[in-house]
Amino acid sequence: MAQIDYYFATISPYSYLAGTRLEEIAAKHGATINYKPLDIIALFGRTGGVPPKDRHISRIEYRAQELLRQSSNLGMDFNLQPAHWPTNAAPSSYAVIAATKDGSGDVGKLCHSFLRACWAEEKDIAEDAVIRDCLEDAGFDAGLADSGLLVGAETYAANLEEAVDRGVFGAPFYITPDDQRFWGQDRLTDLDRHLETLKD
Question: Are residues 69 and 84 in contact, defined by beta-carbon separation less than 8 angstroms?
C-alpha cells in the first residue's frame, strides 16, 4: 500500500484550498496519508523562503490575486485577510498529532476543519474552544486538546527537521514512497497521476 507523507501548516491558505482532495486521491489508490503538521514560518527561514509579510510588494500583490482566483475556481469560501491570521499554529498542530495517535476519528476532516476555521469562518485556531469544536466535529474526543502536549511539541519540531532533510520548502507538500515531491494544492492532479504509475 502506498503512503503519502503530507507536510502542511494549519494556517496555510494553500493547504486550505487543497480541501479534501488529498483524501479522495488516497482513497482512490488505496494509499494511506501520514499527516505531518509543521511550523511553516520556521520552514521558510530554513529553506530560503520569506514570510508573506516580508516579501516584495509584487509578490504580495500576486499572492493576493492568486488566492482569490483559486478559491473562486474551487468554489470555496475564502477571506483574504482573516481576522485571526497569523496566529499560533502549534496548539492546533498538537491536536492533529494527538488525533493521529488516537485514531478514533477522521484526521483529514480535522485538518480541513482547522483550515476552514481560519480562512473561511473567522475563528482563532489557537483558542482552546475552537480546537475542541474541531476535534468533536471530526469525531474525536475534545479532551485530546489537553493530552500529549509534550509529545505534540516534540513531534511538531521533528516534523520540521524531517521536512528540511527531505527537501520540503512550502505547504502543502506531498512526498510519495519513491521520493517524488509535489508542492502546492495545484499539483494534486500530478500526484494522482503518479500514484497510478506506482500500480504498474
Answer: no
